Amino acid sequence: MDLLKRNKSTAYEAIKLEDAKDHPLRKDKQHSARYFELLEARRKLPVSSERQEFLDVYHSTKVIVLSSETGSGKTTQIPQFVFWDEYASKKRIICTQTRRLAAASTAQRVSEEMDAKLGEEVGYSIRFDNRTSKETRLCYATDRILFHQAKVDPMFSDYVSRRRFVLVYTLTHTRQACIILDEAHERTLNTDILMALLKKVLLFVKYFIGAKRFTVSGRIFPIEVGYIENSTQDYLSLALHTAKHIHEQDNEGDILVFLPTTDDCEEGSANLRKATSDLDVLQLYSLLPQHEQDRVFKRSDKRRCILATNIAEAGILIDGVVYVIDTGLVMQRGFSPRIGCDTLTKTPISKASARQRALHAGRTSPGFCYRMYMKKDFNEICLPWTPPAILQSDLSEMVLQLKAVGFHDVANFDYVDPPHPEPIFRALEDLFWMGFVDEDGSITIKGKQAAQLPIHRAWYNAFAEALSLGCSDEMITIAALEAHSSRCFFAHSLFVIRRTWPINASFVRTKNQVEDLMGKDADKAVDEWCAHAFLNRSVLEEEARLRQQLKESFRPDYDVNIRKALARSFFYRSAIRNPAGPDWYKTVHGNWPAGLHPDSSLVGSQHGWVIYGGFSYGAYQYLSSVTAVDPKWLIDLDYFQDANLAKKRDGRLKQPQVFYSLAKAREAQKGNTSA
């Protein structure tokens, strides 16, 4: 170990340590037999043959832009090359991933390759799950985690000593010895901002000027790609029929099916199990419980068929796949700044995504990719690349975080791809009404505090209101539950879940049900309770950890004013009854019609005013996480004063009923005061 000089080591020296029987990180301990099995496989990866070439570039420049095809070993091996080269520095190396599953599974694999226990020299850090220790030298983390660290340490001093970075297309360096941005081509919002922040650390004039490119060839076997002759809307049936045919007629090899939705995965797995025998049908999507996800990475005596969303597209290695069935569809999130509405639409994938999916079939042997769409559609409809998230997201969280780390002029921030001004202006407007920026756009003290919360910024105001009303403990529970609302339930039928949970259940009643879980001591009792309620225990445990994290900042009080506190914090997401139809509302300032989500407990209750947590467009525009409120709770807020109500170009009110409802509430309030 003493032979390794920082940034002067050679591939020969590191390989000599790795090949030795004695464990270089464990005194008086030898490497295991499993270690040498994995080492043999590592040596066959394309990137291993270019280890010295990589180190030569790494030693001579501050920034490397590394590009590589799938199967080269870049995600697992490059961080290990850097680990030994930076070992003498005793600094930490961080490698970001765009998905939680990729960070956790890759850390597990690398810890096995290094013959180390996960959480010691090698660990991972994802939201609410930190498997690192003071011994950790190589950490895999989501880009979100590194971005939030930037709020405390914008110069990345934990990772940067000589300020060296690697940007991987799939790398970047700094009190960590090195920062590696893996899967950078996916262009998530956090990765884009991290690239800009790292640029500031290095004082670049242009992005990555002076950066050296390093290309690693992929180890990809020949892949035969086929298309259907006629287009079809029933992609699921066609994909399942193809998987069944492969299982019954073709040679050995696992099958990977890419589907757009989790419902498709659930329905498809049930149907495929019924239609086949001796086939191990698995699923892979982000909301799946951890033990179910882990099954995908374990080999089976039977042929496996894995039904997955686009989570399996990049950053995840599934050994044994020979056949890929690609439906060519993905659920794409977007945002309309004009109406403040999130969108989730089923859209064709990009050509880059299609190629990425196909490459899974050629990792270990010649493979086949069956595309459930026409070649003409691939050529004419599919975009070359998936648009970066910064061009299709709500930017209010990003704007607040940038201001929190010292960037005031967010409109002229040096983005990799500058977003349109409209979503930035919408973000500034929302932040102003929440009190997080002032009229000049400068972040307020309240805004700086809100930026530290691990959940949506609006909950800061909810906590403050709840504290004054004596119900902060309940509000913290609701906020933690809402943060995991989409992951809390398993994918069972809506009928069964509604039969189990009260139809008229509100956030408060749901909170009480979850607190019932927290009151149970025995593991068996908890498991039985979760099974009866169709709840995902691991997510509820995450919710409990988040709840505890939030409680540390607020004293526990009790009261019944939760809805009032919600109303006075989510007021900018308010809607008034639309007499055009049952369960329909119009947003107060935008005047956009939307129905209640079918799962809402308020369906059929016909409340006059509501506040909502989400405004989305799927099959139609709908409001989710809805709470009924009294307009009397809102009348003193600036947002609802006559001068600030939404108006048409000719000066007339967009929604006269809002004006009259507020006036009526003020009269009623005045009458109560007089009495």
TrEMBL record:
Keyword Nucleotide-binding assigned: yes
Lineage: superkingdom: Eukaryota
UniProt keyword annotations, A-Z: ATP-binding, Helicase, Hydrolase, Nucleotide-binding
Protein name (Swiss-Prot/TrEMBL): ATP-binding PRP16
Record SMART domains: DEXDc (SM00487), HELICc (SM00490)
Domain Helicase ATP-binding intervals: 55-203
Domain Helicase C-terminal: 241-406
UniProt family annotation: Belongs to the DEAD box helicase family. DEAH subfamily.
GO MF term set: ATP binding; helicase activity; hydrolase activity; RNA binding
PANTHER family: ATP-DEPENDENT RNA HELICASE, ATP-DEPENDENT RNA HELICASE DHX37-RELATED
Organism name: Fusarium agapanthi
